[in-house]
Amino acid sequence: MRLIPYLVSGIATLGLVLSLTSCGEENKGNGKKPETTTSGTINISVDEGYKPVIEQQLKVFDSSYPEAHITPYFKSEKQCFDDLFKDSSGLILTARDLTAAEKKVYEKNGVPLRSLAVAMDAIAIVVHPKSVDTFMTLGQLKGIMTGSFTRPYTIVFDNAQSSTVRYIVDSLIPGQQLSSKSYAVKSNQAVIDYVAQNENAIGILSVGYVWDEESTSELGEFKKGVKVVSLKNDVTGEFYQPYLGNIALFQYPLTRDMYFITRDNGYGLSAGFANFICSERGQLIFKKSRLVPLRVQLNIREVDIK
Q: Disulfide-capable partner of 264 in 53, 270, 278, 284 (CB 3.0 to 4.6 Å)?
């Protein structure tokens, strides 16, 4: 039996990021109602790793505001930023904020941008059920990523331009090259399917895809068919899996934030959806999807795992 931290609701919204005021007048030129924070039609671009939770967010938002029509496009991180730069998406949801250089470009051109971290998730490591490497140090994982580990592994990512690849390279092996036995298989679910069928494969993916959606456990359960690796925290000396409490306390070592970034000046539908995911309802959806909500207060307690 072991203890792991678990998040419980202690919801107290810290404050809404964007105004929910709308213009309230028709465009005199064409007689059409203007886009507001709760009505209109927009496209948004979303990091494919966040597809499960954003689909849930949109389901609730759409049911609450039937005059709002948001079409999500789930893409690689690079494609999301390309859409933002081309102004083809009203809002993007990604695993990184704008860089200082990117902000300067927009400021120079007088384009107002808003961004905020709204939730935190993690990068999960999965192996075949027969693998002997279900507990790893970060040093061992780095060895696998660079091809210097004692046992050979085929490394599987979702997309060559994904936030997952960028995170691993930037945070885990900066300045080094990924192993030549690294491959992209188009989606996070494809990563799980490949690892489940190949004993010498290791998958790197967003944690939202490793949860069993049919589980009734309060803590949640991981999908069958693969093993989720426990990673060693170099500070505590303990091994942790990417449970919600372990992510919130930074005990699981591979965590990252989710950001919204929008050009919206605060009056459009992009602002309305950004505001919604920062609200109490939106933050609870993140929690139920096993992501750590960042715009509410949380209580953490320990529970027994037998």
A: 270
Asked if 62 and 92 sit in the same domain, the reply is yes
Encode pLDDT of 149-185 as tens digits. Answer: 999 999 999 999 999 999 999 999 999 999 999 999 9
3-state secondary structure the chain: CEEEEEEEECCCCCCCCCCCCCCCCCCCCCCCCCCECCEEEEEEEEEHHHHHHHHHHHHHHHHHCCCEEEEEEEECHHHHHHHHHHCCCCEEEECCCCCHHHHHHHHHCCCCCEEEEEEEEEEEEEECCCCCCCEECHHHHHHHHHCCCCCCCEEEECCCCCHHHHHHHHHHCCCCCCCCCEEECCCHHHHHHHHHHCCCEEEEEEHHHCECCCCCCCCCCECCCCEECEEECCCCCCEECCCHHHHHCCCCCCEEEEEEEECCCCCCHHHHHHHHHHCHHHHHHHHHCCCEECCCCEEEEEEEEC
Q: Do residues 130 and 242 both lie within one domain?
A: yes
Asked if 187 and 271 sit in the same domain, the reply is no
Residues 152, 54 share a domain: no
Question: Which residues span the domain enclosing 148?
Answer: 121-255
Q: Quick one: 242 and 268 in the same domain? A: no
Whether residue 289 is found in the same domain as residue 217:
no
